[in-house]
């Protein structure tokens, strides 16, 4: 059950297409249920997004910052596959690979509440998703 934050410039006119592409990549790569979708989209003035190349030698034109919060347990190969799938899925909706920035944060079942002030994975109301 990932929670995904997508920050983009307000110059982008297709935030829902971007969100749909990211979700499709996660569903296809991790095999999560289609309706296991939690995304927050935020348009910001272009000057409010600073994303340089970290010394890799390329320029970003209109960065899309993606933060993925999800259960721990996936290996490096699974994460690498997800990053590649997200970049590939975003290209057809106008996001260049050089403009894709992904931050990936892992946590455990005790770190999620789906409502009512309860950690449903801990109480057993929801089964803890498999990550393998």
Automatic annotation (TrEMBL):
SUPFAM superfamilies: Tautomerase/MIF. Pfam families: Tautomerase_2. The lineage of its organism: Bacteria, Bacillati, Actinomycetota, Actinomycetes, Micrococcales. It comes from the Bacteria. PANTHER family: TAUTOMERASE YOLI-RELATED. It comes from Nesterenkonia halobia. This is Tautomerase family protein.
């Amino acid at each position: 059950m990932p929670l995904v934050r997508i920050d983009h410039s307000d110059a982008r006119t297709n935030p829902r297409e971007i969100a749909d592409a990211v979700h499709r990549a996660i569903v296809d790569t991790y095999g999560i249920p289609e309706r296991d979708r939690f995304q927050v989209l935020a348009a910001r003035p272009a000057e409010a997004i600073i994303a340089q190349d970290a010394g890799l030698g390329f320029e970003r034109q209109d960065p899309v910052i993606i933060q993925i919060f999800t259960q721990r347990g996936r290996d490096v190969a699974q994460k690498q596959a997800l990053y590649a799938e997200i970049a590939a899925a975003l290209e057809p909706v106008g996001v260049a690979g050089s403009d894709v920035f992904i931050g990936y944060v892992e946590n455990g079942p005790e770190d999620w509440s789906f409502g009512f002030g309860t950690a449903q994975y801990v109480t057993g109301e929801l089964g803890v998703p498999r990550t393998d």
